[in-house]
Amino acid sequence: MRSVERMTDVNRETIGTLLLRVGDGCAALLDETMRDLPCNRLELDELWAFIGKKQRHVKETDDSTRVGDMWTWVALDAETKLVPSFLVAKRDAESASAFVHDLAARLRHRVQITTDGLRAYVAPVGEAFADRGVDYAQLFKSYEIEPAGSGRYSPPKVTGIERIPVFGSPVEELVSTSYVERQNLTVRMGVRRYTRLTNGFSKKLENHCAATALHFAHYNFVRCHQTLRTSPAMAAGVSRTLWSTDDLVSAALDGVRP
Predict the structure, then answer these.
(1) pTM for the full model?
(2) Cys-Cys crosslink for 41: which of 78, 135, 186, 237, Cβ 3.0 to 4.6 Å?
(3) Per-run averaged pLDDT (10 residues), the chain, 258 residues
(4) Where on the phi/psi map is residue 160: left (φ > 0), alpha (ψ -120 to 50), or beta?
(5) 135-143 and 85-89 as β-strands: parallel, antiparallel, unpaired?
(6) Quick one: 172 exposed, middle or buried, by C-beta within 10 A (0-12, 13-18, 19+)?
(7) Beta bridge partners of 164
(8) Please, which residues bridge with residue 135 across strands?
């Protein structure tokens, strides 16, 4: 935002206000368009960030619902690469339930779902998909026990993977979280607030949610996926055309779609 301020000679508070409006508009746009989706295979994951301060610095006098560690719950369609639902919240059972129920309401038919080993997913998936059924499995990864050492920041090596069916009859070879984990990298590369080891983290929850919504709206409608050679929204039949950034801003602010 400071770079934009220098390039445009516009006060960054004005830029922040505009981004908040556009982000809120993108959230409303996604909520309206991500309905009756023909997804077949979904991967779910959580992406860590923090607002204001890291969790270890949160004090008793702080509002713990608005500062500290904050997670973005993300669902990704493995076939069309569409992000049908996301939620910025804490990493707890209540947030897991809200996220999974919102996702279930946006889908057209029975799907196969893969998550990591987080236990908070199990009950919400069973409840949200009880009426139509679901093929659900969890993917458990084992990591090499290796001391981090001085200056090391790379994750530990994966030594084993275990696929555990939970509901229905998930196809074992399709039990994977690779695409959604790669999507997490896309978010960190595209949204400054998610970059690790930086002072560009969000200072307010509202701005963090708006920036996240703007990213996923751009990803779904504007960004041309290299493998698909089209946008995820076009691949899923949500949009007939590849949007420009101007189209997205117009849709977010004025409700005018291409």
Answers:
(1) 0.91
(2) 78
(3) 90 92 97 96 96 92 92 97 97 97 97 96 96 95 70 72 94 95 93 86 94 97 93 96 96 92
(4) beta
(5) unpaired
(6) exposed
(7) 138
(8) 112
Going through 103-200 in order, the beta strands assigned E by DSSP cover 112-115, 135-143, 158-167
CA distance 45 to 180: 7
CA distance 121 to 103: 12
The per-residue DSSP string of 172-235 comes to: GGG---HHHHHHHHHHHHH-GGG-SSSS--BSSHHHHHHHHHHHHHHHHHT--BTTTTB-HHHH
Contacts of 65 (CB under 8 A, 6+ apart): 90
CB atoms within 10 A of CB 213: 23
Distance (Å, whole) CA 214 – CA 53: 23
